[in-house]
Amino acid sequence: MPSKMQVWAPYFWTSPTDALFSRDLHRAQSHWRGEDRIWLLPSATTIHRWQTWKWGYPLSECQIPSEAFNLLLVVNLDEARRTYPLIDALGDCVPLGLYRKWLDVRPRLVPDKREVELEVPSISCGEVTYAIRNIGVELEQVARIHNFDPRTSSVKIHLPSFGKDGRPVVSCEDDPGVLLGRYDDGDVYLGDGKARENLEEPTPTIDCWIEWPPPFDVLFPTGSGIDLVYHQALMRRLLGEWQEGDRGQVARVAETWAARLANQATGTMNKAWFLPKLATSEQEALWALESFSGICAQSLRDLQDHAGFAALMSRSTSVLRTVGWLGYFWSEFLEDFSASALPAICVHCGRVMARIRANKRACGRDENLACFRSRHAQAERRSYVRDRKRRLATGVPKDR
Ligand SMILES: [Zn+2]
After folding, report:
1. How far is the CA of 370 from the centre of ligand 1 (A)?
2. 178: CA distance to ligand 1 center in Å?
3. Is 246 in the same domain as 390?
4. What are the pLDDT digits (tens) for 289-306?
């Protein structure tokens, strides 16, 4: 059976290798009793657990005293990647190879967005009430762009080089990659770097949010820091190295990141196996239950007082637990690597494409029609020019 997953996704982006976040996450995981949402509250002095109703489900929540404010959502994925809680933006189940789609999207830099509205619980005399709070964003969740150039409307971001163990070396000058972008209507895009008219006053430093396009905006609801862009660039670079045949380097880096951001853990059959199916379809969940355990029920009501069902649901099962969706992407990447099924980068358009044969260099017609047509148009032009040169050189008229 393919492995079940448990993604611990922070609401506010924090670098998964940040020491403070690691301490908060470790504390949360050691006190966790299967809750769906974990509030990391610096103002809290005690651990408190409660039930609430959200998104049409009963959810269990807890508050844990922490060093920094955050909200962790524990997303369970069953063996078919159905999720609980349900993530509408991803459909009934998370698409296979989600990281491949992520590698093809470009984030947008959004300046001057500083606060996020969030319904935050507070506990008084054991009673939980929620109130909307404006949460200010910490500086480390913001990308600080130092070298924005309004004359060329471009943003250059130096990517840190990645050491042999895959650890980013920030400010390392020896091997910086460069991303180009353009400034447009108040937003900075990581785009094509085209120069624009209408010069503005030079702005030496801009603080920006990195916003991801759908459906990744749901996985990173408050955007991310620049380190997520580094990881995307690193994965793309590894695909290139794999294409060149450097399997050793790809293995080292992918294994390092997957090991840092994922580990074997346990969940209950209820959360890890049954609820993802139930969130998609009650009938499907009941069929799966019957074929797995022999417990037969026409509806959920039949299961209410079923001792065998209760025992099965509380049974623990192994899951692969990842630190956020970045950990999920690295796990998928490593799985594809181990199965020799990594995708390739198209040499023509730069998009990620399925690699069905070793020497495939560009998108097929079914994968990306625009790339396919543009390549063939170029080939036809080249062939026309070649023919014309040959005719001119030999003096042969075209229609002889
Ligand atoms: Zn292509």
Report:
1. 8
2. 21
3. no
4. 999 999 999 999 999 889
